[in-house]
């Protein structure tokens, strides 16, 4: 009776390699989100606070659309050294596992398959090249009349990368802006 342990291990290792390939590709995927905050502060004060926050994070004003009441800021997202190293380490581990399976399946070659581990830095390089890109933050500030309130509230709509929205939350929370 023939053993299916090695072929099934090989198949599982290949499936893991495919998953790793898509994981590395997803590391540079655009994750733009839209979020709205409501504040009792006037429009100018809210916009000034967000503008100060973005300027401190090296964004610059790139467009002002009066018709849409929208302000666009641009900045460059820097790649993360930690993530580049992590992706390289994952690829190194995966290629070592694949070379081990190959060396067991083809004992005549032995550990010659460990040569494929030289491709592991490609994952970090790919991330480093694709992750550094210009990023836009679009803001729309408008007054909203609420029922029963005499003062209008300010609605801030932010369209930005998920990480930038996360970084913006503490600034807006201390300013009295709350998510609806």
Automatic annotation (TrEMBL):
UniProt-listed InterPro entries: CCB1
Name this polypeptide is given: Cytochrome c biogenesis protein, putative, Ccb1
Organism for this UniProt entry: Acaryochloris marina (strain MBIC 11017)
Gene name for this UniProt entry: ccb1
Entry keyword set: Membrane, Transmembrane, Transmembrane helix
Sequence intervals crossing the membrane: 81-102, 109-128
KW Transmembrane helix (keyword) present: yes
Pfam families (UniProt xref): CCB1
